[in-house]
Prior knowledge:
InterPro entries: PspAB-like. Pfam families: PspAB. The protein is of the alpha+beta class. It has one domain (17-187). Helix content is 32%, strand content 22%. α2 (24-35) packs across α5 and α3 (53-67) runs antiparallel to α4.
Amino acid sequence: MSFWRALFGRSKPAEPDLDALFGLPTAAVTLRASAGFTPTGTGSVAFRAAEGADFQSVENDVTALLDAGEGPPVRQVTDDYGYTWIVVRTAHAPEGESPDPDISGLVTDLHAVNSTLEANGYGPSLLCSLVGFHDSRGRSLGLVYLYKRGTFYPFAPAGGQRRDNALELQVEASVGNDLPLEKDRSRWFPVYGAPGL
């Protein structure tokens, strides 16, 4: 830390670490055991779309890459704030195996979307990635990865513009050893209506 940052109480921001996404399968096992949440099989990446043909070409390449062959279904959604979400839905495991969706495959697809945008110079446009979970009581939960912070936080919508803070704190305690969690709770931004929840 430099002298001036120390003097003014500022710290260097965390660097994005996309490999942190690969901690999600372990966190999914922990969530099932501790709170009864299972993956929905849907994940998404949010970014601010840039103007121009170059960005549109990269966006089309990402969608085509994931849609190729036996790839997962992919769609794009634009939210009320102007962010574009690339939504990936993974297949369920083959018959005879676990009935849960393939969370490892989903994470690999989300990593590919983030990496492609980052490699083409659009890292500053990335906002977050989200993986959805639900439980037998019908509650939804998202584990949100903040790209610019390199951290995760739980988001539990509770209908309308409300969230279940108690559940979010429970999930934070459960998966704290599996994922790098955002310590500044003021950065646990609500993502109401996010695709994948």
